[in-house]
Amino acid sequence: MTSLHTHAAARPYRQAEQFLAALDKDWHALVEQVGPCIHQPRPERDPYEALIRSVVYQQLHTRAAERILQRLIELYPHGHCPSPEEVLATPYETLRTCGLSGAKANSILGVAQARLDGIIPDQASALQMPDEDLIEQLTTLRGIGRWTVEMMMMYTLEHEDILPADDFGVREGYRRLKRLDKAPSARALREIGQAWAPYRSVASWYLWRVPRLTTALYQNDAQR
After folding, report:
1. Which member of 27, 62, 70, 106 has the greatest number of CB atoms within 10 A?
2. Total domains in the fold of the chain
3. Do 186 and 207 fall within a single domain?
4. What's the longest Cα–Cα distance across the chain?
5. pLDDT tens, residue by residue, 159-202
6. What pTM value is reported for the model?
7. Once rounded to an integer, what is the mean pLDDT over residues 125-153?
8. pLDDT at site 61
9. How many CB atoms lie within 10 A of CB 14?
10. Pair 185, 205 in one domain
11. CA separation for the pair 12, 212 (Å, rounded)
12. Which of 26, 167, 181, 221 is an active site residue?
């Protein structure tokens, strides 16, 4: 079991860990069991690239999504995420050959057009926007829901206080953490999660890991 007193140099989220561990005995046990948060944002990917990747990954296992994304990237000679212009110059049927569904191919084309139209801001502009304004603006796009934008804000924009309450893993993690018969609704979890501010992104990271833990986390309540 990893101690909460691991050296601070290896603990970029140490303050968040301590805050969450102090919430109650369940959170303390979870932070102890999982160990230091190793959440890894990807700020080198601007919002446009993050949304392209998110569309590919929607409702797929990671390995399947990675294969489709790799085939998409391989359509272009430079070997990285295509520009909006390159995407729009790619025939719909060619996008489909990568393994994309029709809906996802259309979503990716829409994301590319939205970037050119200024609906998808660059990173500097996105960082200046209030969270709800950014969510409202981007969820007007086909195939882009609140969860997708929240993932982008957590990983691309490095926001530390995002709670993707619609995420099944987060809600299920909370259910197991609190030994509930039923996971809370997204609306209920947003209310509950207000107590985790300003570290809701780190709280989400820990909740994603609850189903992976052994039952030891939930045993011996009387001894905690």
Report:
1. 27
2. 2
3. yes
4. 63
5. 999 999 999 999 999 999 999 999 999 999 999 999 999 999 99
6. 0.82
7. 94
8. 85
9. 17
10. yes
11. 23
12. 167
CB 69 within 8 A of CB 56: yes
- The CB density around residue 12, as the number of other CB atoms within 10 Å, is 15
Tokens of 156: 């691309």
Q: Identify the three-state secondary structure at position 3.
A: coil
Angle between helices 168-177 and 25-34 (to 10 degrees): 120
Q: Helix crossing, 25-34 with 14-21: angle to 10°?
A: 140
If asked whether residues 92 and 33 sit together in one domain, one would say no
Q: Taking 90 as the threshold, does the pLDDT of residue 82 lie above it?
A: yes
With bands split at pLDDT 50, 70 and 90, how would you rate the model's confidence at 12? confident
- Confidence category of residue 60, pLDDT binned at 50, 70, 90: confident
Determine the structural domain holding residue 16 and report its residue range: 8-40+162-223
CATH of the domain at 123: 1.10.340.30
| 27 lies in the same domain as 122 | no
Active-site residue 122, yes or no? no
On the 0-12 / 13-18 / 19+ scale of CB atoms within 10 A, 93 is exposed
